[in-house]
Design goal:
The complex is a heterodimer of chains A (about 280) and B (about 375). Chain A is an all-alpha fold. Chain A has two domains: about 1-35; about 75-245, MetI-like fold. Chain A has 13 helices and no strands. Chain A is globular. Chain B folds into two domains: about 10-230, Rossmann fold (3-Layer(aba) Sandwich), CATH 3.40.50; about 245-365, OB fold (Dihydrolipoamide Acetyltransferase, E2P) (Beta Barrel), CATH 2.40.50. In chain B, the strands form four sheets. Chain B has a six-stranded mixed sheet with strand order 6-7-8-3-9-10, with helices on both faces. In chain B, a hairpin with a 3-residue loop joins strand 16 (about 305-315) and strand 17. Classes of the chains: A mainly alpha (about 280), B alpha+beta (about 375).
């Protein structure tokens, strides 16, 4: 919390106080709907609301029942497996493509740089429903709709812009005399990439990959269009769960997803700090 | 230094031209022969084309026309990584994610040398630049001077034919720079590699080089050993760029074998060495180094004389700078050793300044130098 300067008068102080209160309210507004899910997922009853027992913190009002339910339901197990399979493969493709694109786009002699960047980032900007519909018709013609390959490629396309953005960010201010030095010492351009450029942009590549993974992991619109029953992911399963068998197992899986997201965000933050440390050590 | 096989120079630039925009030539017509083991400096103001020449030799820039030959073989179609030329970059360009040892080992690793040999070589070169204790550190943990020594060792460790240095000491403070100049010279004498050194610092060029090529506007104005460059500059640009010059304007009055006689604009007639201005009636500039210009009582009647009015003096320490002005407003500077003979003047005193004919040259006027 920032200190209030001594020269502030009463209204000034009141204003500063108001700002802090409203800031906290906004934060609560953002986080509460997510936090409320967590205790509800331990509800012993099949309800979406707090029971009397939960509110008075009686141990028997809580259970891991819905978590057990998830891990005993083949539908959920398939969805979990699908989410990780599709997410990881899409991430690998998006990371490779996005890194190559960012390295190329960072070159001074790249023609039409702005246009190509805009084109590559468009999946982030175009409304997802439009992208999804377009992909559905396009992939259907190729016979890829309702297949793992189709879903993976679609998610890779959605994840690539994130990789391009994070890698481009680490490449700004990249000292290209390092690449020249390596060439001069006898390294072929391919070796320069793997020995010099890659280790230095790794934080950007990894955080891009994590964003790409989260994108695929959370994604439901494209899945609704593209995935057959075999490719149902966790969000897709939750979506049908909301309509068909409404019970707190959805809340349990949501809590697990929150944990995964927090873990990934913490990883990104740690990487960012490490990159900052490395950079400051240079000068 | 090693003798050449036949009369082929070791490194040769012939009619090298470079343009970036297909309109203006950055390097207009570069010719230079370098012997093996020579220390050549490309000296010039920024934007004069010297770094471009270095980049073309390293392979980072294409040659627009002309040839660069090493041992008689053209390198213009060889990729930079296959040229076997070492380079020390201005900002060191050490790999920040590798330790000092890994940085030094990198060129050897690429050349697939055996592990034991790499270890021995790295030890040897760490000792050479006196950084034995720092092998395990990262470049970010070293001082500027230490990083520069690592960069130097890395450029030398794979025994390249030629070592290029692009203003390698530009980022260091004065003391460290002098120390590193000495260090580079020591390694050059010890290992005998060929150096192409780029700088805009003339003292650095004078103290280190076997020969200096002075660049201006993409043209080599003069390429000569330091003492020739200083004592017999080929034109006014070189005289001005290297050291300091007093410039007296006049017209050539008569031409002899190795002397010319010049009528100065204030009427005095003086005799000087013949240089690039050799026709009677041509406007000329007589150039005299401040330490060669002295007071008339020191030379007697042997020298040229010119009247001037005392303005002020600057006490530098080991010498004193006296500032004078001639009747037509030309400023003259006399550098006098700070000894008991250093004269005292008061403002607007008239004095007669003198110099020996062999200590001055009749050079072109700035307006005439455009065609040189």
């Amino acid at each position: 919390m920032s200190k209030i300067p001594a020269y502030f008068g009463f209204w000034h102080r009141f204003g500063a106080w108001l700002l802090q209160v409203s800031s906290w309210l906004v934060l609560l507004f953002l986080i509460l709907p997510i936090l409320v899910i967590v205790p509800l997922s331990f509800n012993v009853e099949p309800f979406f609301s707090f029971t009397e027992g939960m509110l008075t913190l009686q141990p028997e009002a809580y259970s891991l029942r819905w978590y057990r339910e998830i891990f005993n339901d083949p539908k959920w197990l398939l969805a979990i497996q699908n989410s990780f399979l599709i997410g990881i493969l899409a991430t690998v493709i998006a990371t490779a493509l996005g890194t190559c694109a960012a390295v190329g786009l960072a070159r001074d002699d790249m023609p039409q740089r702005r246009f190509i960047t805009a084109l590559l980032l468009s999946p982030m900007i175009v409304p997802l429903i439009i992208t999804a519909a377009g992909m559905f018709f396009f992939y259907s013609n190729l016979g890829l709709a309702g297949s793992y390959l189709g879903v993976i490629l679609a998610h890779a396309a959605l994840g690539t812009p994130f990789v391009i953005i994070t890698v481009t960010a680490t490449l700004t201010g990249f000292d290209y005399s390092l690449a020249r030095a390596a060439l001069n010492l006898g390294a072929t351009p391919l070796r320069v990439f793997f020995d010099i450029i890659m280790p230095l942009i790794r934080p950007g590549v990894i955080s891009g990959a994590l964003f790409a993974f989260i994108t695929s992991f959370d994604e439901v619109v494209v899945i609704l269009f593209m995935a057959g029953p075999q490719q149902r992911t966790i969000p897709r399963q939750m979506f049908s769960g909301l309509r068909e068998q409404i019970n707190p197992s959805i809340l349990a899986i949501a809590t697990l997803l929150i944990l995964v997201s927090i873990a990934l965000l913490v990883t990104i933050e740690l990487l960012r700090r490490r990159a900052e440390r490395l950079r400051s050590a240079e000068d | 230094m090693a003798e050449q096989a036949g009369d082929k120079p070791f490194l040769q630039f012939t009619n090298v031209k470079k343009t970036y925009d297909h309109r203006t030539l950055v390097v207009k017509n570069f010719n230079l022969d370098v012997a093996k083991g020579e220390f050549i400096t490309l000296l010039g103001p920024s934007g004069s084309g010297k770094t471009t020449c270095l980049m073309m030799l390293a392979g980072f820039e294409d040659v627009t026309s002309g040839e660069i030959l090493i041992n008689g073989r053209s390198v213009t179609s060889i990729a930079p990584y296959a040229r076997n030329i070492g380079m020390v970059f201005q900002q060191y360009a050490l790999f920040p994610h590798m330790t000092i040892r890994e940085n030094l080992a990198y060129p050897l690793k690429i050349r697939k040398k055996p592990k034991a040999e790499i270890r021995a070589k790295v030890d040897e070169y760490l000792a050479l630049v006196e950084l034995q204790a720092f092998g395990g550190r990262y470049p970010g943990q070293l001082s500027g001077g230490q990083r520069q020594r690592v960069a130097l060792a890395r450029a030398l460790i794979f025994a390249p034919d030629i070592v290029l240095m692009d203003e390698p000491l530009g980022a260091l403070d004065k003391k460290l720079r002098e120390q590193m100049q000495f260090e580079i010279k020591r390694l050059h004498d010890q290992l005998g590699f060929t150096v192409i050194y780029v700088t805009h610092d003339q003292t650095e060029a004078l103290t280190m080089s076997d020969r200096i090529a002075v660049f201006n506007n993409g043209i080599v104005q003069q390429c000569a050993p330091p003492h020739v460059l200083y004592e017999r500059p080929a034109n006014l640009f070189v005289a001005d760029f290297i050291g300091e010059s007093n410039k007296l304007k006049g017209v050539i009055a008569s031409v002899g074998d190795d002397r010319v006689s010049v009528r100065l604009d204030d009427g005095a007639q003086v005799s000087t060495l013949k240089a690039n201005c050799t026709e009677v009636g041509l406007p000329t500039t007589v150039s005299i180094r401040p330490e060669k210009l002295t007071f008339t009582d020191r030379l007697g009647s042997a020298g040229n004389q010119v009247k001037a009015r005392y303005i002020t003096r600057h006490y530098v320490g080991e010498y004193i700078r006296y500032h004078f002005e001639t009747s037509d407003g030309t400023e003259l500077v006399v550098k006098n050793m700070n000894d008991s003979s250093a004269p005292q003047f008061s403002a607007n005193d008239e004095a007669v300044l003198a110099w020996l004919p062999q200590d001055s040259q009749a050079l072109d006027r700035p307006d005439a130098s455009a065609t040189s």
